[in-house]
Amino acid sequence: LEIHANFLRIAFVPFAFAVGNRLVVAELYGRTQRFLEGLPMGRFEPALVKWSLGAAVLLAVACGSLVVSLAVASFREPIDAGFATSLVARTVVFTITLWSFLFMMGQLGKLRVPLYLVLGLVLIILASTPELELMRFGPFALLGQDLALSRAGVPWSEVLTSLAIAAGCLAATVALALVREGGVQETLSKPMSSRERAMVGIAVCTLLIVWSGLQPEAEPMPYQMRGEHVLRARSV
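The structure assignment produced for this chain is given below.
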């Protein structure tokens, strides 16, 4: 079961990025999205089909990994219905949340890379703050260290939080498609200019400088004894 957990944490996320890039980003930058918009269908039908197809592919891969892991683990440890239900709920909800987020980011076109950088820096800052406990929040908690061990049932608080994030991402995607009848999305699908790349680089460097300036200096531990007499002593 720990193999399944590590698969979701390490290999599954890049795979989901690749699926989102193929279904969303490549369509926008390749201008084939215009062909779909010219067909006699509703504006949201292509997006709905893409989201459903991506979700089906990712759920098949994630649930396939879980089924194989459960089958192998059943020879070594007891697998009851409650534990299996908890693992299925964690896997499915994490997959839906991750795909909804990546689908929304893919619709942002040239803004997605700067936003990925900013979000990465924000997550690093939050993860380095012990008071916030980022790994206990929403989708991060679903893939926590207790994924393959906890038999306390479905973590409903984390599940509902993750589903709320997924719903927010889908709502942002719909809103982006409605603004100016897709004009904003059309503008974002164009490649970044040299000036925009320079502005993104300046913004990222500024964030790094601010973050490094806000980091407190590490204080020495109060019990760490220093001095020549400590080094000469045979024992503390």
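Interim note for the steering committee: The chain is about 70% helix and 0% strand. The CA atoms of residues 18 and 25 lie 10 Å apart.
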